[in-house]
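Students often ask why we bother predicting the structure of a whole assembly rather than each chain alone. The short answer is interfaces. A chain on its own may look different once its partners are present, and contacts between molecules only exist in the joint model. In this exercise we take two input lines together and write out one structure for the complete complex. Read the inputs first and try to guess which parts will touch.
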Amino acid sequence: MSRGCYLALCARPVQFEKANPVNCVFFDEANKQVFAVRSGGATGVVVKGLEDKNPISFRMEDKGEVKCIKFSLGNKILAVQRTSKSVDFLNFIPDCPQLEYTQECKTKNANILGFCWTSSTEIVFITDQGIEFYQVLPEKRSLKLVKNQNINVNWYMYCPESSVILLSTTVLGNVLQPFYFKGGTMSKLSKFEIELPAAPKSSKLSLSERDIAMATIYEQLYVLYLRHHSRTSNSTGAEVVLYHLPRESSCKKMHILKLNRTGKFALNVVDNLVVVHHQDTETSVIFDIKLKGEFDGTVTLHQLVLPARSIQPYQIPVAGPASVTNQSPVPCKLYSSSWIVFQPDIIISASEGYLWNLEVKLEPVVNLFPDKGKLMDFLLQRKECKMVILSVCSQMLSEPDGGTLAVIATVFDKLNHEYKKYLEAEQSYTMVVETGQSRGNPLLKRPVRTQAVIDQSDMYTHVLSVFTEKKHYLYELVIKTLVQHNLFYMLHQFLQYHVLSDSKPLACLLLSLESIYPPAHQLSLDMLKRLSTANDEIVEVLLSKHQVLAALRFIRGVGGHDSISARKFLDAAKQADDNMLFYTIFRFFEQRNQRLRGNPNFTAGEHCEEHVTFFKQIFGEQALMKLTTF
Amino acid sequence: MAAAAAGGAGQEKQLAPALLSFFIYNPKLGPREGEEEKKILFYHPNEVEKNEKIRNVGLCEAIVQFTRTFSPSKPAKSLHTQKNRQFFNEPEENFWMVMVVRNPVIEKYHKDGKPVIEYQEEELLDKVYSSVLQQCYSMYKLFNGTFLKAIEDGGVRVLKERLEKFFHRYLQTLHLQSCDLLDVFCGISFFPLDKMTYLKIQSFINRMEESLNIVKYTAFLYNDQLIWSGLEQDDMRILYKYLTTSLFPRHIEPELAGRDSPIRAEMPGNLQHYGRFLTGPLNLNDPEAKCRFPKIFVNTDGTYEELHLIVYKAMSAAVCFMIDASMQPTLDFCRKLDSIVGPQLTVLASDICEQYNINKRISGSEKEPQFKFIYFNHMNLAEKSTIHMRKTPSVSLTSVHPDLMKILGDINSDFTRVDEDEEIIVKAMSDYWVVGKKSDQRELYVILNQKNANLIEVNEEVKKLCATQFNNIFFLD
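Now the answer. The structure tokens for the assembled complex follow.
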């Protein structure tokens, strides 16, 4: 891994036959599939996707040059565009007619710019004069027009994740009209205008599709506009302008990412980060719109999160049977001019026949942030962040110049905040479900426990356990550490302010400290009292201190004196070596016997014979309580 | 209570107890005849004739020596006479401190106009004044170290100088007429706080100790109540007394005065925060400002540490930084401290205030306490009183009659005699009931004013109090 390169191409790319005069390569953004079409399909079509291991291959009749080829969702129907007037269809559904069928666009004199599948049987044609939304009926080998809209279109863009098609309209091309597709319906969202860097001199198309991208960032759909540096404006370089495109209301300019450089750029979105590739310097930069920027009242300006770095060097595995050739892998040319970038995170090298996912690596990032607080803000938003965060914490605590207390405090505060947020969300979700308010509320979702939710056991296992040999829980660790360093008064004050939560094990731990730190006795008893489920333990503690009367008064106070063992108390009273005490306790139980059974004598099951004998010995037979009869 | 309250139908004058004399001696310093004066290390009032001083010291020596025969392990603590009471204390081996207090007096006028003086021999409580005497020593030791250390440092001369310098001023602040049970406890009032705010304070202290890396111990107070102490309990107890009865009250005037008042204006203002030094430099902008901090001595039984006491306050939050006496804090250090601690302490103080108000609202404890009580826990020295309205350096204002306070003292003396848990209920004159409870290390004294209440009802009332005020501790019914 070289000097903090935080971007990498995935290790397992999709490999396909390189583009050449007889082999055309297409990419479908919706299914993320690469199509290699040889000789118009006559000598074969190979379809490879990112997830599927088995490529689909088939043959089709060469009816002319293929302009566009895409499967519907689920690979049910194949659509092929060969002319600018019509699209051909081929069913891939078992037991369906296998013959091709064709659909011409409805608008006269219109040219089809392209098409997009919005479900397994719904397709949208985009023509230079509007869009047409069709339902495909594979059994009937025909299409039914659901809706169409006339509008002059320069170019279009489709975001399959959000089912939104964006059309470039007007002469300058900078008025964008979004359409949203769901459940067989097409809805028109409000159009918006992209502010061009400078007023164009002539009335020609001024907004290119190359400078626009659509992506979902932090669950919101954005239109990203790459605004190039213009000499007339006083900007210091190119910028990426983010327009937020909500389904319900109109589009709004929200963020500006300052690139501070000029030249050729390409955009990706990975793990909610906007990645901007710069071909001239062969480096990339990233932006996180959740990090604090400079808010000017309407938009937030963001500077680079990290210094620019190249994508990690990539070795192309040598083709062919490696065992025979035994060649060393060839380094891949990065930022090549033959690269094509697709949203959100796809990079394709058509000349070499590779499709990669771009990935963000978090380990190299750690040392690029001088400010640990900012580093945490950054890491907490990333998908695979847990282990990196824990290693940062561990490094902070164990290395001598790891961080000042203020920094450590900030970092832990941030982790706690995230944990708290999750717990609260979980709690309110549970409450809504339990009270039955969840019915008829489709928006209610169980909160997702992301990797940023770091709990006690994570922290313990990966960060704190190095400081101790044995496995404890956090409170136990705190106590043992304080005891080891003789900081009893500190421990004491922590308990006084309930920093360590009450529990039976903790109370027992305190009891065990009594011999080295006597106040632990009171602290422990108080804790048991607060627990309110530890009355038996309190009695045991008092009896062990020979505080027999206190134990009896306590258990009577909480109403448990009818079920306690007389023998246990008499034993303790006898050990205390105080005859008057023994007399009192003995009399108490005689009275209890009288009250419960109408007879002061002990039953055999109580095993108090020895104590009765002892009582008679000391106080005489006549001192025993008489059976009262009325 | 008041020093000379006129009372009764006839011409009657009441005189409060007063300090007659106070002296410190060591019999080993002048064992031979004719050298008796050498034994005397300090004598108040100094004007007393030499031979009388020698006589009084000799008398005390004799009494202690004589009574030792009967109780070798527990030497005499006090001597009761008609006119006064003497208290003895041997804080260090062979060093004796004696305090002579005149009994309160009622001056009556005979029909013929002649005054008749009546000494009230049974009014003073031994435990209260013995405790006052012990505190005299503890306070001296806090600022001067032990007697022995002074002699090691520079002989008897140095010890005498230190005693003279310290007690000359200190004895004037004793106010013997307003001593009561709280002087026996010499406890610490803790500020009630939720866990999160408490941890914020912890975190603040840790950060400060880290950035001002010469700090050895820190203590944190809010509203004159303790929240955190890095010092051990016994040292904190006396430092707490000094802070709350002497240092803080002296600085309260400018604080109450507000920002724009002339008193406040004299203090160097800082617009960024409210922090200021209560000890040390007054004006940080003055390049000539003296950075002299009081020295204190802690852990005198063990490591014997000498420290500079830096007390810094922002609004109601006060923090004490204690640094090793071998380090001399410079003006630069003070400025650094001010710039680091000031802003953070200001924020913290308002956080605490806010959280405290929230907690108060939640627990509903805003209402005036219906019970008059004093609570003390020997284990952590926690003290709470709803009887004392305000403790000022001159008087402790109590809301109950001194006779009742005396009953509290008597009950406390009874508790001291036995180890067992006890409960004592006293029916006082004028419809008051006084209840004392002792459970393990804790003592609770309640004063109830309920006409015609019987013993059972009083017992129920106290139970109610325990259930509301002390439900989170183990307190036997």
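Check your guess against this: The longest strand of chain B covers residues 305-314.
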